[in-house]
Amino acid sequence: MIEGLIGLVSGVVTGFGMGGGTILILLVSIIWGIDQHVAQSTNLVFFVPTAIASIITNIKQKCIDYKLGITIGFFGIIGSIIGAQVSIHTEASKLKKYFAIFLIIIAIFEIYSLIKEYKILKKSK
């Protein structure tokens, strides 16, 4: 039951284009205590079908900049190869800390963006 709920929540976030894998890795690590390397690899298996579903939906809605997507995708492939090699050679405890730092940075950025947006809305009224 919990697996389905985690998959559903992560899938919805993926559908928004916001990286549902981040939530998946976090929940799988916390709830089952799975090693960080296994959680990240599991996320990759989760990512492929959910990404395909999101791509199909966005193609139907004509919401894709193909030139930008192909360019970013090409360099993303190179980055993923480098990242996988770094991950394989990094201790799980350190990898978990780096992932936590990454999440904190994202949270700070999101909070900053919300405050900035709020100030703009407040000025326009």
Describe the structure.
Helix content is 86%, strand content 0%. It is built from five helices and no strands. It is globular and about 50 Å long. It has one domain. It has helices at 2-15, 20-32, 36-60, 66-88, 92-124. Helix 1 (2-15) packs across helix 3 (36-60) and helix 2 (20-32) packs antiparallel against helix 3 (36-60). The protein has 125 residues and is an all-alpha fold.
How would you concisely characterize the structure shown here?
With 125 residues, the protein is an all-alpha fold. 86% of the residues lie in helices and 0% in strands.
Distance between the termini: 46 Å
Mean pLDDT, as a whole number?
Answer: 85
Tell me the number of strands: 0
Name the beta content range.
Answer: under 5%
Along the chain, the helix and strand elements come as: HHHHH
Give Rg in angstroms: 17 Å
For the sheet with most strands, the description reads: none
Number of domains as seen in the coordinates: 1
Oligomer: single chain
What level of helicity do the residues show?
over 70%
Number of helices: 5
Name the shape in a single word: globular
Helix/strand structural class: mainly alpha
Low-confidence stretches: none
Q: What does the secondary structure layout of this molecule look like, with pairings?
A:
Layout: H1 2-15, H2 20-32, H3 36-60, H4 66-88, H5 92-124
Helix pairs in contact: 1-2, 1-3, 2-3
